[in-house]
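Good morning C.,

I know you're traveling, so I'll keep this short. The sequence:
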Amino acid sequence: MVHNVRSISRRSILAAGLGTVIMPAMAQDGNDPPNEEPTEMQIRMTFHGQALTGTLYDNASTRDLLALLPLDIEIDDYANNEKIAYLPRNLTLEGSASFSNERPGDICYFAPWGNLALFFAGYRYSSGLVRLGRLDDFAPLLTRGKFPLRIACL
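The tokens, ready to paste straight into the viewer:
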């Protein structure tokens, strides 16, 4: 009988411990991590007669991107879940951090290749990926092909 009380007690402690880890993560699901604060700054991306609007986050990489705008580059398909566009120079990584609530519509910078990554399907965070903001609608990204891309502030 004592053994059962002890195992129930251990299970209760384990469940309570897991609850303190899992519940905050679930509470953040769909929300931006604390190091990514949305701003009032928006950009417009146009390609193939379509326009995308994105709301940017307040981080050093985003401010560095804004310094490049307006920008004319090319956008192309990659990995069946994103479109990529190579920037003319690398962005700063100062203050960047990992994130875990990846979702379609994320605007990211992939430092190892120096490109923007615009996700239209599920993906996983990888080292060197910095989230810059969120697209209001990512449906235009489903258009397959390589196109000239114009990025400008709104």
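Safe travels,
E.
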